[in-house]
């Protein structure tokens, strides 16, 4: 009975601290293991425990965060890096980054992957020279520029761009990434893409994800958060998420959150959009003041099939088809928008002008 009360207190304390329960007492470890067999508790990592109903309700990022904070108590010498460090920083990131059992640890000696014999636990040691760290909630993590640099080397473009945008919005200087060395053309390309395309004006990770899809599809890069005067209320100008202004003066607008922010029924939405169009015409926009298109359509249908109101492609349809022959035609839903899914990032045309022109 005494051990049961100690375990209950241990679980309550860890739950209030938003981490997994951990103990070095051998006697206390045996009892939670038996509770795991009955389904009352779950063991997401060796020697770490959590209540099953609480754990099931957590998203992948929060699960990884609770594991890391508990491991930091067991191994105070570990410095978490890459995706594991990004998990603890308050920056926007995709859940897909953390939907795996791997924990990333910085090492000044070598890199390597180590798998536990009796569990799914995986430790990835990442070689990190000139190691510096911050402390977040008791866990040591690499600095934010180092974390973004390491993530950029391994994550797909659509996953690293939201991280970089959010990091710069939080105060990180983008030029800090230039201090880290690159050892191959692929690494130079990855860092160059982050340096060129990061834009903190995107207000959330969803907008950044949409922008990354525009870039990967070879479409003209839009202006972000463009404001238009509001004659009826000058203190609150109109603002759009994405806008493409063509040489002939026509404009194409795309909204990440669609028109849901204007209301719940079609009549309310239509009235709001109509008033906005009239106001923009009054401001002098005489040619197609607002030609809007769904981000879903931009990201999912072939470039040469996009309607005339869509943003123009930077390449011809033949070039797009040749570069994207390895892409699937499936549709997935990430971050609230439906997008074409890709098997492998197409790097031939997504080159950073500041670093490379062509990848062998």
What's this entry about, in short?
The chain is an alpha+beta fold and 360 residues long. 37% of the residues lie in helices and 18% in strands. It contains twelve helices and 15 strands.
Quaternary organisation: single chain
User: What would you report as the Rg, rounded to the nearest angstrom?
Assistant: 24 Å
* Total number of strands: 15
Secondary-structure class: alpha+beta
**What is the average of the pLDDT values?**
75
Query: Unreliable stretches, pLDDT < 50, 5 or more residues?
Result: 284-293, 303-307, 315-360
Overall geometry: globular
Described by strand count, sense and barrel closure, the largest sheet is: 4 strands, mixed
Number of helices: 12
Main sheet: strand order: 10-11-12-13
Distance between the ends:
67 Å
Task: List the keywords.
about 350 residues, alpha+beta, 4-stranded mixed sheet, 3-stranded antiparallel sheet
Describe it.
- By secondary structure, the protein is of the alpha+beta class.
- 37% of the residues lie in helices and 18% in strands.
- The strands form 5 sheets. A 4-stranded mixed beta sheet has the order 10-11-12-13, with no helix packed on it. Strands 1-3-2 form a 3-stranded antiparallel beta sheet.
- Strand 6 and strand 7 form a beta hairpin.
- Helix 1 packs across helix 2 and helix 7 packs across helix 9.
- The longest helix has 17 residues.
- The relative contact order is 0.08.
Q: Helices, strands, pairings?
A:
Layout: H1 2-16, E1 21-22, H2 26-38, E2 41-45, E3 48-51, H3 52-56, H4 60-74, E4 79-80, H5 82-88, E5 102-107, E6 112-115, E7 122-127, E8 133-136, E9 139-142, H6 144-154, H7 157-169, H8 185-197, H9 205-216, E10 223-228, E11 238-245, E12 251-254, H10 266-282, E13 291-292, H11 295-300, H12 317-323, E14 331-334, E15 337-340
Parallel strand pairs: 4-9, 5-7, 12-13
Antiparallel strand pairs: 1-3, 2-3, 6-7, 8-9, 10-11, 11-12, 14-15
Helix pairs in contact: 1-2, 5-6, 6-7, 7-8, 7-9
């Amino acid at each position: 009975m005494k051990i049961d009360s100690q375990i209950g207190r241990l679980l309550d304390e860890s739950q209030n601290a938003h981490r997994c329960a951990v103990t070095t007492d051998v006697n206390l470890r045996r009892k939670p293991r038996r509770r795991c067999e009955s389904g009352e508790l779950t063991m997401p990592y060796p020697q770490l425990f959590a209540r099953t109903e609480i754990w099931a309700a957590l998203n992948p990022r929060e699960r990884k965060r609770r594991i890391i904070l508990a491991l930091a108590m067991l191994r105070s010498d570990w410095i978490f890096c890459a995706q594991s460090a990004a998990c603890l920083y308050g920056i926007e990131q995709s859940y897909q980054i953390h939907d795996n059992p791997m924990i990333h640890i910085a090492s000044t000696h070598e890199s390597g992957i180590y798998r536990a014999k009796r569990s799914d636990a995986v430790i990835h040691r990442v070689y990190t020279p000139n190691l510096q760290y911050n402390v977040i909630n008791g866990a040591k993590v690499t600095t934010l520029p180092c974390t973004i640099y390491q993530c950029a080397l391994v994550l797909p473009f659509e996953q690293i761009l939201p991280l970089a945008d959010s990091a710069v919005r939080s105060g990180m200087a983008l030029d800090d990434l230039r201090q880290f060395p690159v050892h191959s053309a692929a690494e130079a390309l990855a860092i160059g893409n982050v340096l060129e395309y990061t834009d903190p004006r995107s207000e959330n990770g969803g907008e950044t994800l949409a922008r990354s899809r525009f870039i990967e599809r070879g479409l003209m890069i839009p202006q972000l958060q463009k404001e238009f005067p509001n004659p009826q209320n000058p203190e609150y100008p109109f603002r759009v998420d994405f806008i493409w202004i063509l040489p002939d003066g026509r404009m194409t607008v795309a909204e990440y959150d669609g028109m849901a922010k204007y209301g719940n029924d079609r009549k309310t939405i239509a009235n709001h959009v109509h008033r906005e169009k009239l106001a923009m015409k009054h401001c002098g926009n005489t040619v197609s003041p607002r030609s809007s298109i769904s981000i879903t359509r931009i990201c999912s249908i072939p470039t040469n099939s996009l309607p005339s109101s869509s943003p123009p492609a930077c390449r011809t349809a033949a070039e797009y088809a040749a570069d994207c022959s390895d892409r699937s035609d499936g549709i997935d839903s990430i971050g609230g928008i439906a997008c074409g899914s890709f098997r492998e990032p197409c790097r031939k045309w997504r080159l950073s002008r500041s670093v490379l022109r062509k990848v062998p």
